[in-house]
Amino acid sequence: MREFVLINITGRDRPGLSAALVEALAEGGASLLDIAQAVAHGALTLTALVEPAAGSSAESLAERLVQACEHLGVQGDVQRLDRQAYEGWAHAQATPRYLLSLLTHGLTAAQLHRVSSIASGYGLEVERIDRLSAPVRLDGNPAHVPHGCVDIRLQGAPVDPQALRAELLEAARELDVDIALQLDDLYRRHRRLAVFDMDSTLIQAEVIDELAKAAGVGERVSEITERAMRGELDFRASFKERMALLKGLDVSVLDEIGAALRLTDGAEELFAGLKRLGYKTAILSGGFTYFAKQVQARLGIDYVFANELQVEDGKCTGVAVEPIVDAQRKAELLRELAAREGLSLEQTIAVGDGANDLPMLGIAGLGVAFRAKPLVKASARHAISTLGLEGVLYLLGVEERLL
Asked: How confident is the model at residue 144, as a pLDDT?
């Protein structure tokens, strides 16, 4: 009858300790079936599942391992397992894994307790927890609350995915954190195309509202924009209505407005990281190409698709030039770009804030509602509201120390 030995070793780490522990495991020709090691704050944890060599017993192997731990000055908990216990463990390795990312300013134990308790209530058990954010600087500004991000690896299948998502959304609102739950599959760390809305996503403004202010119709256009972004108005119709109000605007104001546009915090860090990872990037905007080209130059973006601002005799005509980049056009462009790059949609990322971004967020492998309107945040699979755009890198599993 086949038997196995499971050993959990803990102790203070020191040079050569791992090698000495593995040497002890190797004595007698035992087979190594599983192993995991971690060192945190100088404390080592090593877990190994081994099978005795032919002609040797699990009991004698367990005794040798206990003696080795005593000799090395570490604590060892040794258990003998039968074939049924081993097969139960092996079967569990095939169950789904999920990654729950917890993003916040100033991570607390209460936040971690809340989300892990919710996950457990839906049949997901915590397998491991990793910090992705950088260590807190003790010599920094006390008023500055640093980023905090941990990845919680969960095992199992949620009993009610919709109810789980709703409860996590409510917890995120109450705790003032961002929570993203993703299937830990092949694509999570291997996406290669990222597309972005521009206005109120990459830049801190709605350009059409800034143009309207210059034209003296700021309040009227801003109100229409807000309703369109909330999903209360059809984007195409509202865009044409707003464009008509800009008729006669002198194009001399464009450079001044463009110069005043501010990138959203974290945009430069995000695009620098995406470029290092080999991503292709694109702006898919219901705004205007004139301004999108400026953002493209600043961030090194590969593609730009936006609306044309028609001008005659130095004045805006107020005519919406077809094809208008609306919600469906954004989704179509994402499909086209993925095909052009030889990628599946699962390998894409889409980020936006308005209702006209929902179709592209829905078909992308990773769709992120960024500082979005309530309807968009509730409808998108993932949302970032507490951090800047650099938070997208955390959802890709990127550790801050690598940037």
From this structure: 63
Give residue-wise pLDDT tens across range 83-130: 999 999 999 898 999 999 999 988 899 999 999 999 999 999 999 999
DSSP letter assigned to residue 68: H
Domain that holds residue 149: 97-183
End-of-domain residue from the set 45, 66, 92: 92
Q: Which of 199, 209, 326, 353 is the catalytic position?
A: 199
pLDDT in the model for residue 101: 97
Strand partners, 102: 150, 179
Token code pair at residue 304: 């730009």
Residue 345 sits in a domain whose CATH number is: 3.40.50.1000
User: 315 and 248, same structural domain?
Assistant: yes
199 noted as active-site residue: yes
The residue from 92, 116, 144 where one domain ends is 92
Q: Could you say which DSSP state residue 386 is in?
A: S
Both ends of the chain: CA-CA distance in Å? 51
Is pTM beyond 0.85? Reply is yes
Alpha-carbon gap, residue 192 to 53, rounded angstroms: 46
- Tell me which of 313 and 138 has the higher pLDDT: 313
Q: Which of 151, 197, 209, 326 is catalytic?
A: 197
Residue 291: inside a domain, yes or no?
yes
Q: Is residue 160 part of a domain?
A: yes
Specify the 3-state DSSP secondary structure of 2. coil
